[in-house]
């Protein structure tokens, strides 16, 4: 975000209050390839022909209701992170429309950015600074009052299980899991009405995952926050999400409640009553999400 674009939480809530649809994606399309090849260094241009393209998001349509926790499950390279980047205005779609609380992500980008925040697994920081210093720096970019930002930062970090004595510790001394908690705290600092969480609990131990999941539920209950979540953790998706979409090769192949997906796949494979989200994912994509995650920590595209 850019300094001067953030507004107070009550005003953000007012802007978003005119619709019960938090996110509307219609025929969203994103391609990579030809343009990217043209700007590659000369020694890499032979690796891909300029005419080749990859469709990362292939005419996806979905609707997320206000106050919903919506999950998106997909293997690495399936297009889930690309879709989040399109929603968060970090990428420009090649086709279709995306609206956040009725505002078009291209034509009304500044308003959309006031309503959202994004947490990703590749979050970057000033590693020499402490957790609190990083959050205070972010608060200045968001034009948040200093006293409020400090109080809010300490409150969030405590809620995520970070002890007060570690607030002043340089991030370079913290584990990846602890750094991810700081990234989540930064995303929650502005009390966004649409929170985009891209693999938010990757690298966290079970207790820290529980802390984060509990705080996500608190954000929904106390701040009317809508959550769009991608995750490799099937239990997390099953436990947190009101509805889940399965994405494969840039397309949505199924969308329902967790129980609805398990019932449908259970009836298909003859495993009624004992179907897991792992069974659902394997049946719909032919892939094991756990194996895929072990082979690659980050999604490309």
Structural key phrases:
globular, disordered N terminus, 12 helices, 4-stranded antiparallel sheet, 6-stranded mixed sheet, disordered C terminus, 301 residues, 40% helix, alpha/beta
Can you tell me about this structure?
There is one protein chain. With 301 residues, the protein is an alpha/beta fold. It is 40% helix and 21% strand. It has twelve helices and ten strands. The chain has helices at residues 9-16, 34-38, 80-87, 109-115, 131-141, 146-159, 176-188, 206-223, 234-240, 258-269, 277-285, 289-295, and strands spanning 21-32, 54-65, 69-73, 95-100, 103-104, 116-120, 194-198, 226-230, 243-248, 251-256. The chain is globular. It starts with 8 loop residues before the first helix and ends in a 6-residue tail after the last helix. The relative contact order is 0.16.
The percentage helix is 25-40%
Described by its quaternary structure, the protein is single chain
Number of strands: 10
* Number of helices in the DSSP assignment: 12
Radius of gyration: 20 Å
Write the layout of secondary structure elements.
Elements lengths: L8 H8 L4 E12 L1 H5 L15 E12 L3 E5 L6 H8 L7 E6 L2 E2 L4 H7 E5 L10 H11 L4 H14 L16 H13 L5 E5 L7 H18 L2 E5 L3 H7 L2 E6 L2 E6 L1 H12 L7 H9 L3 H7 L6
Parallel strand pairs: 3-8, 3-9, 6-7, 7-8
Antiparallel strand pairs: 1-2, 1-4, 4-5, 9-10
């Amino acid at each position: 975000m850019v300094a001067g674009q953030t507004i107070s939480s009550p005003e953000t809530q007012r802007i978003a209050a005119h619709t019960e649809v938090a996110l509307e994606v219609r025929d969203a399309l994103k391609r990579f390839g030809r343009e990217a090849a043209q700007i590659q260094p000369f020694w890499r241009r032979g690796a891909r022909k300029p005419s080749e393209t990859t469709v990362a998001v292939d005419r996806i349509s979905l609707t997320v209701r206000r106050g919903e926790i919506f999950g998106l499950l997909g293997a690495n390279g399936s297009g889930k992170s690309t879709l989040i980047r399109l929603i968060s205005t970090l990428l420009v779609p090649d086709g279709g429309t995306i609206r956040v609380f009725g505002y078009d992500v291209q034509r009304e980008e500044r308003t959309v950015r006031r309503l959202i925040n994004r947490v990703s697994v590749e979050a970057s920081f000033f590693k020499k600074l402490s957790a609190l210093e990083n959050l205070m720096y972010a608060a200045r970019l968001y034009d948040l009052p200093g006293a409020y930002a400090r109080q809010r930062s300490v409150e969030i970090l405590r809620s995520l299980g970070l002890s007060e004595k570690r607030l002043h510790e340089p991030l370079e001394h913290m584990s990846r899991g602890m750094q991810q908690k700081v990234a989540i705290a930064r995303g929650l600092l502005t009390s966004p009405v649409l929170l985009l969480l891209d693999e938010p609990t990757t690298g966290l131990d079970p207790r820290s995952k529980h802390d984060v999941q509990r705080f996500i539920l608190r954000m929904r209950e106390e701040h009317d926050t809508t959550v769009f979540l991608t995750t490799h953790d099937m239990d997390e998706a099953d436990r947190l999400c009101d509805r889940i979409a399965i994405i494969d090769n840039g397309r949505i192949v199924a969308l329902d409640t967790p129980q609805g997906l398990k019932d449908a796949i259970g009836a298909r494979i003859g495993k009624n009553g004992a179907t897991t989200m792992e069974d659902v994912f394997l049946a719909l994509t032919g892939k094991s999400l756990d194996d895929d995650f072990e082979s690659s920590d980050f999604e490309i595209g």
